[in-house]
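Progress narrative, work stream C.
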Amino acid sequence: MENGRSAWLVFGLTGQVGQALHAAIHAGDPALLAVSREPPPGDGRVAWHRGSLEAFVAPAQPIDAIASLGPLDAFASWFEASSLAPARVVALGSTSVHGKKDSPDPAERALAGTLRDAERRLAAAAEVRGSALTLLRPTLIYGHGRDRNLSRLVCLARRWRVLPLPLRAGGLRQPVHVEDVATAVLGALRSRSACPGFFDLPGGETLAFDEMVRRSLAAGAPSATLVRLPGPVFRTGVGILRGLGRLDAAGEGVLARLDRDLAYDAAPARIALGHYPRGFQPNAETFPA
């Protein structure tokens, strides 16, 4: 890669959003520099640097923009310590900064606090350097079977042939496809003028949690049965499975949110970034076997 050519520096390109972004890069985009402990085989579109984010030292090549698609707190710490001052910084956070701040689970409250602190630190560092920061907060990401939410439920349904849910599990959700998240990141990078600000990034449809699960099972585990249980019975069953080490992800925070609305305003991202995400219509490719 030529030293004088400008580039985008991307962290997290091997993750689920990074994979979708990599696939959407075209010849008119700047060169990509990416960092990974285990770089994938080269395809001519990316110059890979082997190593961790913490140890990465940016090359002398001009960097027009930096995109962070991985953990926000790690990136904020790296950016604070770096000397780079790109025109744009585009980073992924999460709407967990809103949805988990009052969680009954201390670990989830701590996560929300970590996200909020990382947002503030990154914004302060970007302001000092004159970099326009676009902070994107996706909702529940799905799409290529690499998420830890819907894909996990589908895997349980495939294994058990049933998936229990409490009778009250109607909290609103806005699942966002991973390719739509990648498109929003690219939109912020490619835009003629910078799009600074913090933007929630919901999907194109608002639906109840149980309806979201029904559609997921129809697409990924059609032979499984969704069983509705009274709340106390459901919680007792979850407690037993957790005690057996078979359901470690279902903490009190998760259970408390099943009937709580987690819906966010899509208008700011639509106006600033042209974010028009698809509705929630999963298919067999959404949840690969």
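Work stream C, second folded protein:
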Amino acid sequence: MGEIFNSILKPIEILVAWIMYGWHQLFTMIGMPAASGWTWALSIIGLVLVMRAAMIPLFVKQIKASRKMQLIQPELQKIQKKYKGKTDPDSRQAMTQETMELYRKEGTNPFSSCLPILVQSPFFFGLFRVLNGLDEIAVGKNDPIGPITKAVASQAESATIFGAQLSDHFLGANSLNTQIVTIVLIVLMSATTFTTQRQLMMKNMPASALDNPFAKQQKILLYAMPVLFAVSGVNFPIGVLIYWFTTNVWSMVQQFYVIRRMPTPGSEAEKALHERLARRGKPIPGSVPSAAAIGADGTDGSDGTEAVAPKPGGGQRQQPKGKKRAKNQGPPKAGRPEERDVTGDAGSEPTP
């Protein structure tokens, strides 16, 4: 089993090593010291930027899937209530089929929201293995990983930030600097995780979607995940914690942008968007200007286009008549408004 896992991760380790090395070479070319811990830390941040930029489509799909999963919870509860207490195989199968049909109809499923995490996990473990193996590569125990040769590994292994090596862990740390840097990174990592999840739940979901078992489970995870990360973070190298913190910041900023521009209908984010548009005098998407909003100049004030008011009467349009035909018909009858010639052309032919 371990051999299979290693064979799967090996290409990812090499890819991670090349991306880090490429960024390191770029920073070295612009004048940063090759052996500096900040140069290697920025190389890890560069790795995050490359990965997350490539996963933008998956992120958009994830946020849409999470939004839909929250919104269809009332329908899921109806299906569950319909088959409550029925444990026979036919009822179980029918409930599963109706649930899957609802997912198909809405274009979502519970696994769509996990795609970015699943895709990112191999790179996370690949970076972990690269950083964890630097010391053994540096002394010649392990083979090089792509461009991470013995000399490069030795350089990266000895690189420090605030006196802590990038490959150091909190557990078994030899210096107070390592423990302090690790604790600060774990706190930042946990805080950004909490902020990102809370932003998604509280700002981009209508109140009706937050009052269901699924939402309650999400709230539990909202507080449980930072604690889990804090506990597990003591086992990770400082370089991995930098990676984790950076990817959380990316998720938080990217999610903030998406929620601000494309909020869920009925959410607090949508209300805030409408308020911003109203303050700027811009039209609110989906709104129709009222009659009172149409100004004296014939515009509705939203986009400057002319608002055409309906003519009184709203009846059938009268056919234009030539002057000769109008003359032959004689004067208009009493109590009947005189029909106006709408052709405006004295030489027009009479209507047959």
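The first strand starts at residue 160 and ends at 161. No further action is required on this item.
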